[in-house]
Amino acid sequence: MRIAIVGLGLIGGSLALKLTEAGYSVWGISRNPATCQEALERRAVQGCGTELAQLTLFNPQVVVICTPLEQVLATLAGLVPYLSPQTVVSDVGSVKQPIVGPATALWPLFVGGHPMAGKTLQGIQGAEANLFLGRPYVLTPIPQTQPQALAVMQELVAAVGAEVVLADPVRHDQAVAWVSHLPVMVGAGLIAAVSQEENSNILALARTLASSGFRDTSRVGGGIPQLGLEMARYNRQALLAALRGYQAELKALEQLIEGEQWEELLQKLQRVRQEWQQFPVNQGAP
Ligand code: NAP
Question: Candidates 227, 229, 231: which one to mutate for ligand 1, based on the most atoms within 8 Å of Cβ?
């Protein structure tokens, strides 16, 4: 199968590396000739161009748009003149509702996608073939989605070693608001709160003492600012609901501590530990 990746950044580059490794014929499109050069040198792609029009030479059966979220629809609109009618198109954007309906109207063989994998690096330099291994990869069909297009994307998701999860765009956006977008804001808030410590000696000591607990709870807050911004901008309502739920929980914890309600606090933390174990990603964790 011939697959084109538009936007050879962290996610696009990683998809290209893995799909090439899996034996697919992969082409890339990047605005930047140096990125194309690097993708060719790393054998992520067999061919690479800087213009969407060059895709007519490759005639892909699948195109995956891996640009920043705000560019997905414009990129698809730019692609349409160069696609053959059977080409399946997908994206990897972290928010789905603003994308999937309009994209399907532009191209009936569109299937929304979102790999639940990432790093705090940007660009093809951070790309790695095994980024998606064993990770959930959400496909977000809507009633207008063509079953044959969905089947093609299910095959590709399996080929990159990820686990297909099907969800409609609204449910997807609400779920990722809780487990992906809220943690970014919580991590950002945590780092900002610690950093406002006025006593410079205490702040310096806190930085020295910060260990795995701080690293785990702050990591995503210190990630790529543009990704946090796109989550907030495009998933605003669901993220606000999650932030308010989180604030209510923080308030409840604060009140238990303020009231020295140690028994209730212990019971709460015991319940939380059980809930923590319900997340597959935490199973087997210490
Ligand atoms: P990235 O490393 O910055 O890559 C983005 C790519 O898009 C780059 O190759 C860049 O290409 C291209 N690009 C940037 N601005 C563009 C524009 N105005 N028009 C056309 N192309 C443009 O970012 P990424 O982390 O791979 O994120 C890409 C997508 O993946 C986003 O939609 C994001 O929501 C989604 N995603 C990210 C993560 C994550 O953790 N990083 C996880 C899941 C999903 P040039 O080489 O052309 O400059």
Answer: 227
